[in-house]
From TrEMBL:
One of its GO terms (molecular function) is hydrolase activity. This is Glycoside hydrolase family 43 protein. The keyword Ribosomal protein does not apply. Keywords: Glycosidase, Hydrolase. Belongs to the glycosyl hydrolase 43 family. Transmembrane segments: none annotated. Coiled coil: none annotated. It comes from the Bacteria.
Length: 341
């Protein structure tokens, strides 16, 4: 049963994992998308809900805009992670990650460190749905399959449009299938209903050399795996292409397959301005079990990052940001809005 939720809501009281903000200039309204949580939406089921605000301080009770169970013949009904909404050709497109544990996928062999993967991999990937409104309802464009190739275990798809106008989906290829997680991209059809060609490798998690800065030498279980999560692309004033992404540092893989470590928000830079890179990894922006962030501009023009913290029972945290060329910096946390922590 849903708990009674009063309005306005504030970020410290709003369940919020993998946050994504659309600042709608037409209505001067911020739309904050996240996975459906029945305790606040009042609606049961795997899907996407949206909070709304005019000032990033006071938010409405969330409205459900997508439910997996309402999509005829949808290939999966679990997950509902990392929803994003993008305007494209006059319509709104929702990307969200679903999975189906009944469709097995290959697992990697025991690594060179001798650690077996006590895991059963299954189909996981981002689906695309469309609506004429930011408030939905969103309808799946292809209920038969995920947008990235179905034999890959992927998540967190995001939209990128290159300078020629070609749309891409950029996604994380799971460490569960690769050990060293990767970021990849695939071209999308003009109407976003399918893909064109093969995936393009962008970078792997271990390219961020700082991940292992504090790992003691000679400890075999503290090397793999390396995680890629939450990509978002952003063009810098100097023409470089930035990618926000998240990972874990000081990884430990337990005998039961449990991954522990510190979740961090970081970013990479393609100075060529091309999605193909080469990508240069930067130092983390925010640590403290924080991540899956994205950048947006407020109606006053301030570049802002929203992420979630902590990983479990997450809440949204806001940061004022600055771009100097292709260097992204945190100016301050908006503790007046997000309650600190």
């Amino acid at each position: 049963m849903a708990t009674q939720v009063s309005e306005p809501m504030r970020l410290p009281d709003m369940p919020l994992h993998d946050p994504f903000v659309v600042a709608d200039e037409g209505t001067r309204t911020y739309h904050l998308y996240t996975s459906n949580d029945p305790s606040v939406s009042g609606v049961e089921g795997v899907g996407t809900m949206v909070y709304r605000s005019h000032d990033l301080r006071d938010w409405t009770r969330p409205v459900v805009v997508f439910l997996a169970a309402e999509q005829p013949d949808l290939w999966a009904g679990d997950g509902g992670w990392a929803p994003e909404v993008h305007r494209w050709n006059g319509r709104y497109y929702l990307f969200t990650t679903l999975h189906d544990e009944k469709i097995p996928l290959p697992v990697p062999p025991p690594g060179r460190w001798g650690t077996p993967f006590a895991l059963t991999n299954h189909r996981r990937g981002t689906v695309t749905a469309v609506s004429d409104s930011l408030l939905g309802p969103f309808t799946s464009v292809d209920p038969a399959r995920p947008t990235p190739p179905g034999h890959l275990m992927t998540l967190d798809g995001t939209l990128y449009v290159d300078p020629s106008g070609q749309p891409w989906m950029v996604y994380a290829h799971e460490w569960l299938q690769t050990v060293d997680g990767t970021m990849e991209a695939i071209r999308l059809a003009p109407d976003l209903t399918g893909t064109i060609g093969d995936p393009v490798f962008l970078f792997k998690a271990s390219d961020a050399s700082w991940i292992g800065d504090e790992i003691p030498a000679g400890v075999p279980h503290q090397l793999p795996p390396y995680v890629t999560d939450g990509p978002q692309l952003y063009r810098s004033p100097d023409g470089s292409l930035l990618m926000l992404w998240s990972t874990y540092e000081k990884n430990v893989l337990g005998e039961d397959g449990t991954l522990t470590g510190g979740y961090v928000q970081t970013y990479a830079v393609s100075k060529s301005g091309e999605i193909e890179g080469p990508w240069q990894q930067q130092r983390p922006l925010v640590r403290n079990d924080s991540g899956h962030g994205m950048l947006f501009r407020t109606f006053e023009g301030q570049l802002t990052m929203i992420l979630h913290r902590p990983f479990e029972n997450a809440r949204g945290k806001l940061y004022e940001m600055e771009l100097d060329g292709h260097e992204l910096r945190v100016l301050r946390q908006r503790t007046d809005l997000d309650g600190g922590g």
